[in-house]
Amino acid sequence: MSRVIAVLGAGTGLGVAVARRFGREGFRVALVARRQDRLDALVEELGGEGVEAAAFPADLAEPAGVPALVEAVRGRFGRIDVVAYGPISGEQGFTPAAELDAATLEGLLPLLLLTPVEVVRAVLPEWTERGDGAFLLAQGYSAARPMPDLSGLGPVMAATRNYLHSLHAELADKGVYAGALTIASLIDRSEVSAAARAAFDAADGPRFPVADPDDLAEHYWNMYTVRDRAERFHPESLTPPATA
After folding, report:
1. What is the CA radius of gyration of the chain?
2. Distance of CA 222 to the CA centre of its chain
3. What is the pTM of this model?
Protein backbone atom coordinates (compact mmCIF):
# COMPACT_ATOMS: atom_id res chain seq x y z
CA MET A 1 0.00 0.00 0.00
CA SER A 2 1.44 3.37 -1.01
CA ARG A 3 2.25 5.92 1.67
CA VAL A 4 0.01 8.81 2.68
CA ILE A 5 0.78 12.40 3.64
CA ALA A 6 -1.83 14.51 5.38
CA VAL A 7 -1.33 18.20 4.59
CA LEU A 8 -3.05 20.16 7.35
CA GLY A 9 -3.53 23.75 6.30
CA ALA A 10 -3.57 23.00 2.58
CA GLY A 11 -3.51 26.18 0.53
CA THR A 12 -2.24 27.52 -2.75
CA GLY A 13 1.28 28.18 -1.45
CA LEU A 14 3.26 25.79 0.73
CA GLY A 15 0.45 23.26 1.22
CA VAL A 16 -0.04 22.31 -2.41
CA ALA A 17 3.72 22.50 -3.06
CA VAL A 18 4.33 19.92 -0.31
CA ALA A 19 1.50 17.75 -1.63
CA ARG A 20 3.00 17.91 -5.11
CA ARG A 21 6.55 17.14 -3.92
CA PHE A 22 5.52 14.10 -1.91
CA GLY A 23 3.08 13.07 -4.63
CA ARG A 24 5.99 12.80 -7.07
CA GLU A 25 7.42 10.17 -4.75
CA GLY A 26 4.25 8.09 -4.91
CA PHE A 27 2.47 9.44 -1.82
CA ARG A 28 -1.29 9.72 -1.76
CA VAL A 29 -2.43 13.03 -0.31
CA ALA A 30 -5.06 14.06 2.23
CA LEU A 31 -5.73 17.80 2.00
CA VAL A 32 -7.17 19.50 5.09
CA ALA A 33 -8.41 23.09 5.33
CA ARG A 34 -11.61 24.95 6.12
CA ARG A 35 -12.78 25.79 2.60
CA GLN A 36 -14.32 22.99 0.57
CA ASP A 37 -14.08 24.94 -2.69
CA ARG A 38 -10.34 25.51 -2.30
CA LEU A 39 -9.76 21.88 -1.41
CA ASP A 40 -11.77 20.65 -4.39
CA ALA A 41 -9.73 22.85 -6.72
CA LEU A 42 -6.47 21.53 -5.30
CA VAL A 43 -7.65 17.92 -5.57
CA GLU A 44 -8.47 18.51 -9.22
CA GLU A 45 -5.14 20.25 -9.82
CA LEU A 46 -3.13 17.44 -8.24
CA GLY A 47 -5.20 14.78 -9.98
CA GLY A 48 -4.30 16.35 -13.32
CA GLU A 49 -0.65 15.80 -12.37
CA GLY A 50 -1.20 12.15 -11.52
CA VAL A 51 -1.33 12.58 -7.73
CA GLU A 52 -4.15 10.84 -5.87
CA ALA A 53 -5.65 13.33 -3.43
CA ALA A 54 -8.80 13.73 -1.37
CA ALA A 55 -10.33 16.67 0.49
CA PHE A 56 -11.13 16.76 4.19
CA PRO A 57 -12.71 20.07 5.22
CA ALA A 58 -12.04 20.85 8.87
CA ASP A 59 -11.40 23.78 11.17
CA LEU A 60 -7.96 23.18 12.66
CA ALA A 61 -8.63 25.80 15.31
CA GLU A 62 -10.83 23.18 17.01
CA PRO A 63 -8.51 20.61 18.65
CA ALA A 64 -11.45 18.47 19.74
CA GLY A 65 -12.12 17.60 16.11
CA VAL A 66 -8.70 16.04 15.53
CA PRO A 67 -9.55 12.39 16.38
CA ALA A 68 -12.49 12.36 13.95
CA LEU A 69 -10.38 14.02 11.25
CA VAL A 70 -7.59 11.47 11.61
CA GLU A 71 -10.07 8.60 11.49
CA ALA A 72 -11.66 10.06 8.35
CA VAL A 73 -8.27 10.17 6.62
CA ARG A 74 -7.52 6.61 7.70
CA GLY A 75 -10.96 5.54 6.53
CA ARG A 76 -10.22 6.89 3.04
CA PHE A 77 -6.57 5.90 2.69
CA GLY A 78 -6.02 3.17 5.27
CA ARG A 79 -3.03 4.83 6.92
CA ILE A 80 -1.12 8.06 7.58
CA ASP A 81 2.65 8.13 7.18
CA VAL A 82 3.46 11.84 7.28
CA VAL A 83 1.69 14.90 8.64
CA ALA A 84 2.67 18.34 7.29
CA TYR A 85 1.20 20.97 9.61
CA GLY A 86 1.25 24.59 8.55
CA PRO A 87 -2.08 26.43 8.71
CA ILE A 88 -1.92 30.21 8.70
CA SER A 89 -4.53 32.75 7.76
CA GLY A 90 -4.93 36.44 7.17
CA GLU A 91 -6.90 36.56 10.43
CA GLN A 92 -3.65 36.11 12.37
CA GLY A 93 -1.16 38.89 12.87
CA PHE A 94 1.63 40.20 15.05
CA THR A 95 1.08 42.28 18.17
CA PRO A 96 3.70 44.42 19.93
CA ALA A 97 4.68 42.76 23.21
CA ALA A 98 3.70 45.88 25.16
CA GLU A 99 0.17 45.60 23.78
CA LEU A 100 -0.23 41.84 24.16
CA ASP A 101 -3.00 40.46 26.37
CA ALA A 102 -4.28 37.08 27.46
CA ALA A 103 -7.23 37.15 25.07
CA THR A 104 -4.92 37.50 22.05
CA LEU A 105 -2.81 34.56 23.17
CA GLU A 106 -5.85 32.43 23.92
CA GLY A 107 -7.10 33.05 20.39
CA LEU A 108 -3.83 31.82 18.89
CA LEU A 109 -3.30 28.77 21.10
CA PRO A 110 -5.73 26.28 19.50
CA LEU A 111 -4.44 26.49 15.92
CA LEU A 112 -0.75 26.97 16.65
CA LEU A 113 -0.18 24.81 19.74
CA LEU A 114 -3.12 22.72 20.93
CA THR A 115 -4.10 21.17 17.60
CA PRO A 116 -0.53 20.12 16.66
CA VAL A 117 -0.25 18.35 20.02
CA GLU A 118 -3.57 16.58 19.46
CA VAL A 119 -2.57 15.55 15.94
CA VAL A 120 0.61 13.93 17.24
CA ARG A 121 -1.36 12.13 19.96
CA ALA A 122 -3.76 10.79 17.33
CA VAL A 123 -1.14 9.45 14.91
CA LEU A 124 1.64 8.39 17.28
CA PRO A 125 0.28 4.94 18.22
CA GLU A 126 0.17 3.98 14.52
CA TRP A 127 3.68 5.30 13.93
CA THR A 128 5.32 3.70 16.96
CA GLU A 129 3.70 0.36 16.13
CA ARG A 130 4.99 0.59 12.56
CA GLY A 131 8.36 2.02 13.59
CA ASP A 132 8.09 4.88 11.11
CA GLY A 133 6.31 8.20 10.67
CA ALA A 134 7.02 11.92 10.44
CA PHE A 135 5.46 15.12 11.74
CA LEU A 136 6.63 18.21 9.83
CA LEU A 137 5.77 21.66 11.12
CA ALA A 138 6.07 25.03 9.36
CA GLN A 139 6.49 28.07 11.58
CA GLY A 140 7.65 31.67 11.44
CA TYR A 141 11.10 32.93 12.39
CA SER A 142 9.79 34.84 15.42
CA ALA A 143 9.36 31.44 17.11
CA ALA A 144 13.14 31.17 17.29
CA ARG A 145 14.19 34.82 17.45
CA PRO A 146 12.00 37.33 19.31
CA MET A 147 11.77 40.69 17.57
CA PRO A 148 10.30 44.05 18.63
CA ASP A 149 6.70 44.63 17.53
CA LEU A 150 6.37 41.02 16.29
CA SER A 151 4.93 39.31 19.34
CA GLY A 152 1.74 37.33 19.82
CA LEU A 153 2.38 34.70 17.20
CA GLY A 154 6.00 34.36 18.31
CA PRO A 155 5.42 33.31 21.93
CA VAL A 156 2.82 30.71 20.94
CA MET A 157 4.96 29.30 18.13
CA ALA A 158 7.93 29.28 20.51
CA ALA A 159 5.96 27.01 22.83
CA THR A 160 5.21 24.67 19.93
CA ARG A 161 8.88 24.77 18.91
CA ASN A 162 9.87 23.77 22.44
CA TYR A 163 7.42 20.86 22.31
CA LEU A 164 8.68 19.74 18.91
CA HIS A 165 12.34 19.71 19.94
CA SER A 166 11.47 17.56 22.96
CA LEU A 167 9.36 15.28 20.78
CA HIS A 168 12.17 14.89 18.26
CA ALA A 169 14.57 13.70 20.97
CA GLU A 170 12.06 11.33 22.55
CA LEU A 171 11.01 9.62 19.34
CA ALA A 172 14.28 9.36 17.42
CA ASP A 173 15.04 5.83 18.61
CA LYS A 174 11.50 4.69 17.74
CA GLY A 175 11.84 5.44 14.02
CA VAL A 176 9.51 8.43 14.26
CA TYR A 177 10.68 11.86 13.14
CA ALA A 178 9.46 15.27 14.31
CA GLY A 179 10.93 18.39 12.73
CA ALA A 180 10.23 22.08 12.22
CA LEU A 181 10.89 24.22 9.17
CA THR A 182 11.33 27.77 10.46
CA ILE A 183 10.72 30.31 7.71
CA ALA A 184 11.94 33.92 7.72
CA SER A 185 9.90 35.14 4.77
CA LEU A 186 6.51 35.35 3.18
CA ILE A 187 5.55 32.43 0.95
CA ASP A 188 4.83 33.08 -2.69
CA ARG A 189 1.56 32.05 -4.35
CA SER A 190 -0.33 32.00 -1.04
CA GLU A 191 -3.36 34.12 -0.24
CA VAL A 192 -1.79 35.28 3.02
CA SER A 193 1.38 36.40 1.26
CA ALA A 194 -0.57 38.33 -1.36
CA ALA A 195 -2.64 40.11 1.30
CA ALA A 196 0.42 40.92 3.42
CA ARG A 197 2.39 42.29 0.49
CA ALA A 198 -0.55 44.47 -0.57
CA ALA A 199 -0.88 45.82 2.98
CA PHE A 200 2.81 46.59 3.28
CA ASP A 201 2.89 48.25 -0.13
CA ALA A 202 -0.16 50.37 0.66
CA ALA A 203 1.37 51.55 3.92
CA ASP A 204 4.85 51.95 2.43
CA GLY A 205 5.88 49.48 5.12
CA PRO A 206 8.75 47.00 5.42
CA ARG A 207 9.63 44.74 2.52
CA PHE A 208 9.89 41.10 3.49
CA PRO A 209 11.68 38.44 1.43
CA VAL A 210 9.42 36.00 -0.39
CA ALA A 211 10.19 32.29 -0.55
CA ASP A 212 9.29 29.96 -3.40
CA PRO A 213 7.02 27.27 -1.90
CA ASP A 214 8.63 24.67 -4.14
CA ASP A 215 11.96 25.36 -2.42
CA LEU A 216 10.31 24.98 0.98
CA ALA A 217 8.67 21.73 -0.09
CA GLU A 218 12.10 20.44 -1.07
CA HIS A 219 13.29 21.27 2.46
CA TYR A 220 10.39 19.21 3.78
CA TRP A 221 11.33 16.25 1.60
CA ASN A 222 14.95 16.45 2.77
CA MET A 223 13.84 16.65 6.39
CA TYR A 224 11.66 13.59 5.92
CA THR A 225 14.34 11.52 4.25
CA VAL A 226 17.48 12.64 6.11
CA ARG A 227 16.04 13.14 9.62
CA ASP A 228 19.30 14.55 10.99
CA ARG A 229 18.00 17.50 13.03
CA ALA A 230 14.93 18.80 14.79
CA GLU A 231 14.84 22.10 12.92
CA ARG A 232 15.84 23.63 9.62
CA PHE A 233 15.79 27.31 8.75
CA HIS A 234 14.96 29.10 5.52
CA PRO A 235 17.11 30.79 4.50
CA GLU A 236 19.85 28.65 6.04
CA SER A 237 21.95 31.75 6.69
CA LEU A 238 19.55 32.71 9.50
CA THR A 239 20.18 29.53 11.50
CA PRO A 240 20.96 30.67 15.06
CA PRO A 241 24.40 29.64 16.37
CA ALA A 242 24.43 26.61 18.60
CA THR A 243 24.57 27.34 22.33
CA ALA A 244 27.01 25.64 24.67
Report:
1. 17
2. 15
3. 0.90
Query: Could you give the 3-state DSSP secondary structure of residue 184?
Result: coil
Q: What is the DSSP letter of 239?
A: P
Q: Which among 170, 180, 182, 193 has a CA at the least distance from the CA of 238?
A: 182
- Comparing CA positions, the residue from 201, 206, 208 lying closest to residue 187 is 208
According to DSSP, the residues that pair with 102 across neighbouring strands are none
Most distant CA atoms of the chain, gap in Å: 53
User: Which residues 6+ apart lie within 8 Å of 65 measured at CB?
Assistant: 58, 59
Name the amino acid, one letter, at 105: L
Separation between Cα atoms, residue 226 and residue 177, nearest integer Å: 10
Within 10 Å of residue 147's Cβ, how many Cβ atoms? Answer: 11
User: What ranges in 110-188 are assigned the alpha helix state H?
Assistant: 115-130, 153-171
- The confidence score (pLDDT) of residue 207 equals 58
Nearest to 184 by CA among 227, 229, 141, 213: 141
Whether 19 contacts 45, CB under 8 Å: no
Start-to-end CA distance of the chain, whole Å, equals 45
If 0-12 CB within 10 Å is exposed, 13-18 middle and 19+ buried, where does residue 89 land?
middle
For range 149-176, the mean pLDDT: 94
| DSSP letter (8 states) at residue 141 | G
Q: Are 31 and 44 in contact (CB under 8 A)?
A: no
